[in-house]
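fyi for ur records
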Amino acid sequence: MRHPQAAIPSATSRRCFLRSVSIAATTSMFSVVQLALAASHVTANTPSQKESALDEKRMRALAAWTALTFQTPNPVPYGTEIVHSESGESLIRATNAVREEHDPSAHAELRSIRLACKKLNAYSLSGYTLYTTCECCPMCMACALWAGLDRVVYGATITDAARFGHQIHIPAAEIVKRSDMKCVVDGPVEHDLCLSLFTNPMMQDAFRRWNSQRP
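which gave:
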């Protein structure tokens, strides 16, 4: 004989069952929404095919311009350019000038940001993108954030640079992640070409001189 309570769940059991189903459905839906948002976030930060091609073209031109310093007494592998994010119009270019200016903060990124702000007579570079032959150090990436740049696009990595001199080993993207300011960091772009600026024999001689002069 069938037990009546086994065939018909109690009202309390039905309420518990419905509540558990509701929670599971809500959790599942929340997970789907999370995944969708995550996917859209990744897509938004991924350069389009057209944008990638422009990045490569601009980085090649910047590397060639930076290589011109090898014809001077002060060769440097660090070159930067700030361009308008929409039109692509170049605003300013700069190279590292720490030794010439006797200024440890005269990195190419900081110099280009300073020169660009003076040229625009503004403290914000919102609407502009910074290209650099080497990933920004923490000092330069922090300045890029304070300047409100839209993007930073780099060639060689901070790890590459550390092979030839002292560095603070924090990736540029990590600086952005630890701030409450927004800036897209893309790279490496034309990595091998930008790395060749560091491995050039003239640059290697300069690195040896610089490192021998450090305390």
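Confidence is low (pLDDT under 50) at residues 1-9, 16-44. thats all i got for now
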